[in-house]
TrEMBL record:
It comes from Noviherbaspirillum suwonense. GO terms for molecular function: ATP binding. It is found in: Cell membrane. Its main location: membrane. The keyword Cell membrane applies. Residues 54-289 form the ABC transporter domain. Keywords: ATP-binding, Cell membrane, Membrane, Nucleotide-binding, Transmembrane, Transmembrane helix, Transport. This is ATP-binding cassette, subfamily B.
């Protein structure tokens, strides 16, 4: 019986590994195939990015045809290299804008254009090459930190990975770990905090070096030091990139070239922080409510 123990127990380990591997694959599959109905048009051509101007032209959208409309006539432009931030209460439709720009779904009517090209007419591969998303909740694969960063760019060198990690202010943390860049993370490895995971996501985005960046700010509250650090990284990250920030904290939108205030799928106000404060309407109300800390974060800010 003892002779059987070792092979059986290693079989157990192998079984668990295979099972975990299948779970990882399943997750990956879900991510990659979240919207299989969005397909390349037979005559799709590669997106020609020249700076990455984004234009939403009179966009209407519902998740299921005939269902409740989530976006109504949304119209805005992000000039190449500019930053636009979207704020509004929870459910206003902010994240939906990001999902449409990445073409997880197609618009019901209207158009989304990048440098004048309708995103439905270009190949999905070229579209997704031009855009990086720093999501609210970063998925880490059961792999090393190095591979988790490099996942954005197949064949990235160690130097490129480290440069991206330095810029995302996560390099010092990584090299303080006993196995540094070879440390396993994910469900079976080292658990990282929300802020650390977000920095890994920022490093991924920097390594990918796309023209367009979508930053879907984490809803979970960060302490003010962590928030300041993320803000610095964000300021660095958005330099010269066309950026859409889905904002949940107003402090991160002050420097945006334009702020869009959404309410029930419509843009109800737009302008710079100073212009919107001077106007004294919805944005000003959100801002002063947040400053006074009168409401829970999710009610106030933007989400
Ligand atoms: P939050 O700040 O809470 O993240 P949000 O402003 O980003 O909210 P969205 O996530 O864009 O809002 O959601 C807008 C509306 O669309 C909500 O009413 C939501 O319930 C609905 N919705 C979001 N995703 C789906 C989906 N996959 N299927 C159906 N309805 C959805």
């Amino acid at each position: 019986l003892a002779q059987l123990y070792v092979p059986l127990s290693s079989l157990g380990v192998t079984y668990r590994e295979i099972k975990q591997g299948l779970i990882d694959l399943e997750k990956m599959y879900q991510i990659l195939n979240s919207q299989p109905e969005v397909t390349d048009h037979p005559s799709a051509f590669p997106l020609q990015c020249q700076g990455g101007e984004v234009h939403f032209r009179q966009v209407d959208f519902s998740y299921q045809r005939g269902d409740r409309k989530i976006l109504h006539g949304v119209e805005f432009t992000i000039p190449a290299g500019h930053t636009v931030a979207v704020v509004g209460h929870s459910g206003a439709g902010k994240s939906t804008l990001a999902k449409l720009l990445f073409r997880f779904y197609d618009v019901e009517s209207g158009q989304i254009l990048i440098d004048g090209q309708d995103i439905r007419s270009v190949t999905q591969a070229s579209l997704r090459q031009a855009i990086a998303i720093v999501p609210q909740d970063t998925v880490l694969f059961n792999d090393t930190i190095a591979h988790n960063i490099a996942y954005a760019k197949v064949g990235a060198s160690q130097l490129e990975i480290e440069t991206a990690a330095r810029s995302a202010h996560i390099h010092q943390f990584i090299v303080s770990l006993p196995q540094a860049y070879e440390t396993m993370v994910g469900e079976r490895g080292l658990k990282l905090s929300g802020g650390e995971k977000q920095r890994i996501a920022i490093a991924r985005a920097l390594l990918k070096n796309p023209e367009i960046l979508i930053f879907d700010e984490a809803t979970s509250s960060l302490d003010s030091r962590a928030e300041q650090a993320i803000q610095l990284e964000l300021d660095y990250l958005v330099q010269k990139k066309t950026t859409l920030i889905i904002a949940h904290r107003l402090s991160t939108v002050i420097h945006a070239h334009q702020i869009l205030v959404m309410d029930q799928g419509r843009i109800v106000e737009r302008g710079t922080h100073a212009e919107l404060l001077a106007r004294g309407e919805s944005y000003a109300a959100l801002w002063f409510a947040q400053q006074n800390g009168r409401y829970a974060e999710r009610d106030v800010v933007a989400t």
